[in-house]
Amino acid sequence: MSLLKLRSLQVSIGPVKAVRDVSLSLEAGECRALVGESGCGKSVTAMTLLGLMPNAAKISAEEWWFAGRDMTQIKEREWRQLQGNQIAMIFQNPMTALDPTQTIGAQIAEPLRIHKGLSRREAKMRAIALLERLAIANPAQRAEQYPFEFSGGMLQRAMIAMAVVCEPELLIADEPTTALDVTVQAEVLSLLQEMRESSGTAMLFITHDLGVVAEIADSVSVMYAGQTVESGSLHDVFSREAHPYTQALKRAVPSLENPKPLEAIAGTPPDLRQPPSGCGFAARCSKRMAICEESPPLMSCGEDHLARCWLWHKDHPERWREAEAVSLLGGKL
Amino acid sequence: MAISVFRFAPKTWGAADDLEAVAPIPLPSMANPTVILSGLMVIFLLLFVTVGPSLWRQSPSQQWLSQISEGASRARSVRIVSDNGAWRPSKKADAPSGLKVHAANTEYVRLQWPKLAGIERYRVYRGDADKPGLGLAITETADSYYQDRLQLSSEVYRYTIADADTGLLLLSREVRPEAAMSVFEAQLQGLIPVTNNKTQWVEIPGHPLGTDALGRDILARLMAGGRTSLFVGVVAPLLFITFGCIFGAIAGLMGGWVDQLAMRFVDFVVALPFLLFMILFRVAFGIGPGENGIMPLIVAMLVLSWPGSARLIRGQVLALRSQPFVEASRIAGVSTSRIILRHMLPNVLPMILVAFSFAIPQAIFTEAFLSFIGMGVSPPTTSWGALCNEGIKTLLSHPRQLILPAIFISLSVLAFNILGDALRDATDRRSGVVRA
Amino acid sequence: MLSFIARRLLSGVITIWFIATATFFAMHAVPGDPLTQEKAMSPAVRAQLEARYGLDKPLFEQYRLFMSNMLHGDFGISFTQENRRVNDIISKHFPISATLGIAAVLIALVGGVAAGSVAAYCRNRWPDRLVMVAVIAAISVPGFVIAGLAQLVIVAMNNAAGKTLLPVAGWGSVSQIWVPALVLGLGTMAYLSRIMRASMLEVLSADYNIAAKAKGVHGWRLFWHHQLRNAVLPVVTELGPTIAAITTGGFVVELIFAIPGLGRYFVQAVQQLDYTVIMGTTVFYGAFLVLVVVLVDISYGLIDPRIRLHRGRA
Q1: Main-chain dihedrals φ then ψ at residue B362, nearest 5 degrees
Q2: Quick one: A119 and A258 in the same domain?
Q3: Domains in chain B, ordered, with CATH?
Q4: Is residue A128 in a domain?
């Protein structure tokens, strides 16, 4: 059974329908990238998965399972036991996500004190050991320092330490390298990868950087205007992209091997206060059809490869032709 | 901030004439009903103290001896009674059978009662008719008559006669004194000619808010006091902010050691304990006959309050000096005075306005505080704070005399504060002036 | 850190010198002198008195004498209360003012922080509205009016109860401290709660607050460890001016509640032009305030590590 299974999540904050239809699933130890442009609902999805949305937000899902628990029925107190313990998060900007008035060591030790009931001393020892594993020199001394005394890359390592200290089953990383210098990005990424692999933690990696995705992820989900529009393995999504949005996204990324003029995606994403009734991408799509006035469901376009696009409907002419070709070749494709 | 950097840039690079254009000074947003209300309140207060006295023509210093600490009253006619001092019932009159009232007006109540056998001394009590109990024991006498002249007003009293030795209650009667005024006071107020003591009735004006402990009309005093309070509240900030701005601008524009020295001096002035020095300077600048105390107050505030705006303006000038659009103008050969007038002034003016609007309630408060402790304006000049000072003495018996001027102080402080808030919000939105 | 404290203390000493000098000359600018206020006296007696108080010397000589006496901690003898040393007046009456002031600061600080936090937590709901209306009222109504109204309320309460629940004025018992202290601290409390509300709102939407929640930190632990310490910083910066405002604002409360504090003596001394008492109290208050500002700066460093460490290195 999957570690996380989420079907048709919807979140609205006041008039804004920030997340309209997100389906995700993660196996234990898997790293899934959640890709999309800013404002498409990635961060809201992450916050919802952590139970951090304000009470004013309206959340509903057809199905939501985490580690064998039905999350649609979960109570506030149970959430608190999950947060930081079984689900942890790495924030985008380590400069603002660490409490300026607490020492780094105390902040890393805090989840241990809350969830594992360790003594102050013991928790601090573990925090120091973890800092050492994250290649921070003089960890004992560093643990006594305050966030303003750390550089950005170091802070993000402290942030990682804070997230993995209780060995959670799911780690959500919300653009963990965006706020960092390019030179330390790779370093932080490889550390993250290393920590994840050694503890077998599953990770939901939120980013808009396709290069990072290729480096770190096993599978990819693409989001657009509050919906997951495509999901599949890294290879499926990157080399057999099925949704026109994913295709457009790829054309907008520079490539060294295959230098072509970059194409920006024309138009702007829809206003999520009044989302379109049909396909969210239709207004900007070059392959728009009449049926796109209706909202497409997720459709299979390969093994474990889904796309929210009418092109992949079994009644679409091209699918007919494919089916014909397959039968002609005797199913050898 | 990015917007403010380039706000003037296109003009800087345009034809010389374009430089004449300046950014308009932001006005407070008038959409907020609270702001409209406080604006109306300010207008009302200003009208109250300026136009008010010509509509309500009572003198704020006229004392009505017959109307000490009275409640609200209408214009009415009162009886004029001659003031004969001591009184005794005429021998001819028979001893009454019960408690007899010979006269009852607000100048005197004359009582007579039968001599009762075996009682040597009588005690007379006076109490409010609508309250239980005997009230105040006003005298003990061996006579069987008494004239009560103790602070009478037109309400119903109950007089009780008791045996002073045993405390046995003998007689009781309710009396309502008629509104009256002595000949002496009527002549003093000019209501009747000095030669005339025949007039029976005279018209006297009402007091919509009552009178104070010296029988002066509170409404008229509120108008007169408000004039002082608002005058000090507006003029003092005007002066000290102007001075502070000039000081700060010079420091900021000169820079270097002049700036350093100037700011050190500002630090020292800021360190002076404000109220202590207000009191000290207030005394130092004006003790003498005929001083009303307003000028010393304003001078003391000027001496002590300018550093705030000096710091503000200096910071702004320093920040603006290094702004790209100012540097660009300088490279383009625009003269210094033109840069100050065209680029710096429009940018700091809104801040000065905001500082000014917040300084007004502060100054009103300071004036009220000093007048309250008797270190502000000197009598006969009055202010809301001075009125509070008078009012607190009669607080327990007549709280109105404190509360009325207090309401005016609070309303004006509140209204100016809300206007200041609105002005600041409007300024913050409109101009991205660099925060120092 | 030590050099920082040393520098602050040095500038404090210069400030006190400035205060003393300003007081001296402001006072001597007052027309007349303490002796002219007395009843007519013979020239011989007057000369004798002038000699006693040093008023016969030139102004600069008087200034020099005053300064050297002050350096030895001696403020001289009162003009109007004969044979009473200014030092005695201060040491007798300042502790009373200080007690009142400390109680007021504590009430203002605790009340302001609590009210501001509650308002921020309940943003735009009724507790927030209530706090904000109370804040506006407390800021707009002068302290002496609040003091008067408080007395009215106490009297009404005592009358209704038929016995003395609370004393209306005076000094000496604990029940006589907290009403004047509350009155004195009310305006400051309002001001602080406004600052606290704004900074708490900022903290509540800060990344580190969300990050702490993501770690599973909730409830009181979240409030104490993460929110309060950050939100209280702007309040602490305001503490210096606040204490200054409260100590001097104490004058009026002392007058109204008949508390024998130093403020009352100062007002009296100014009215009677009692040179030595004016000088003594002003310099003493000035020194006290300078000290308070330095202490507040240091305590700010203790709460905010950024300042503590930066200044320590400087």
Answers
A1: -65, -45
A2: no
A3: 2-60+214-426 (1.10.3720.10), 81-181 (2.60.40.10)
A4: yes
